[in-house]
Amino acid sequence: MSERKFVIVDGSSMLSTCYYAVLPREIMYAKTDEEKQSHYDKILHAKDGTYTNAIFGMLKMVVSLMKKQQPDHIAFVFDKTRDTFRRELYQEYKGTRGATPEPLKTQFVLIETILEEAGFQVLFCDRFEADDYAGSLVMKFRNEIPIILYTKDHDYLQLVSDVYDVRAWMVQTRQEKADDLYKKYYSIYGLKKEDLNLPEKVFEFTSDTVYHEEGVKPEQIVDLKGIQGDTSDNIPGVKGVSSAAPLLLGEYGTVEEIYRAIHEVEDDKKRLKELQEFWKKELGITRSPFKALTKKGEGELCGEEAALLSKELATMKTDIPISLSLEDFHADSYRQDKIKEWLKRLDIKEASIFGTGNE
């Protein structure tokens, strides 16, 4: 079952997920880096010592995607470094993340080579992140073809659009979670899971489901992160406003408009009181976020400055120059034989990736 679509795969997210999904228990429960490193030999690897656990999982996903979902066009986007332009804006961006384990780091380099040799376009560079390339691909081609974003990163939800037919195949932690979301949103319309034709553990987000799950429209995801922050990327947000953020954005639309409303009344005690009463009675915000939103501190990122910077950090680039045409991403370039060659070189059984039937 297929439909015309351009699938953009978040390669960094996928490879990392595959790596951590099948790590030996000794590494999963190790308490120190030294202890983890002492068990690296237990990670799935080829005879020559090349680590392959993440590559195994990712190639299995790619082969299944090409067979079952049959994209007309496909691209893979990757992160190359954390020292992108966002670090120039905020030095602590992604600062809470530990160093990438060496076994995973080596597999990033190798999977990019394998995918390129298998006929896929692979995009990455030093200055931008994977999602910036995804955003730029969406902006370049959304008028030409329906687009699917295949990822587990909720940042990608900002690109979802019913107008341009941009959807997100969001990978869930468990199949049960994906099934629960399916029952919640699609089964009521009589749709069968087979009709959606989704990969394993995936739930498809449209503008409607983004709104119901996140509390804001797709284009407001960056404003939501501007206020709530994002601990995974160490985006600060505004402390003490988290639960009020969707309610405020429902009324004002953007971070900038929230602050416009505040600035209009902050020097008038009567009007300020009226504003906070409006927030409480009309928007249902029980605890006023005014102090947190307007907090100022020397040497401390907070209030409006934190909100605007956080929004900027969360906003994907959509204007990276991409010289490739849509035809350059056509799935006809897919070379199954090249993947099979790599499986042999990496001592991975072909049947474990392609199955035992005729592919």
Structural class: alpha/beta
Largest sheet report: 6 strands, mixed
The CATH topology of the largest domain, please?
A: Rossmann fold
- Cα distance, first to last residue? 16 Å
Supply database-style keywords.
single chain, 359 residues, alpha/beta, Rossmann fold, DNA polymerase, domain 1, 2 domains, six-stranded mixed beta sheet, 8% strand, globular
Question: What would your notes on this structure say?
Answer:
The chain is of the alpha/beta class and about 350 residues long. The chain folds into two domains: about 5-215 and about 315-350, Rossmann fold, CATH 3.40.50.1010; about 220-315, Orthogonal Bundle (DNA polymerase, domain 1), CATH 1.10.150. The chain is about 45% helix and about 10% strand. It has 18 helices and six strands. Strands 3-2-1-4-5-6 form a six-stranded mixed β-sheet. Helix 1 packs across helix 4, helix 1 (about 10-20) crosses helix 6 (about 100-115) and helix 11 packs across helix 16 (about 305-315). The radius of gyration is 23 Å and the shape is globular. The two termini are about 15 Å apart.
Short description:
The chain is of the alpha/beta class and 359 residues long. Helix content is 46%, strand content 8%.
What is the secondary structure topology, with strand pairs?
Elements: E1 6-10, H1 11-21, H2 25-28, H3 33-37, H4 53-69, E2 73-77, H5 85-89, H6 102-117, E3 121-123, H7 130-141, E4 147-151, E5 166-171, H8 175-185, H9 193-196, E6 202-205, H10 207-214, H11 221-228, H12 245-252, H13 255-265, H14 269-281, H15 290-294, H16 303-314, H17 336-345, H18 350-354
Parallel strand pairs: 1-2, 1-4, 2-3, 4-5
Antiparallel strand pairs: 5-6
Helix pairs in contact: 1-4, 1-6, 11-16
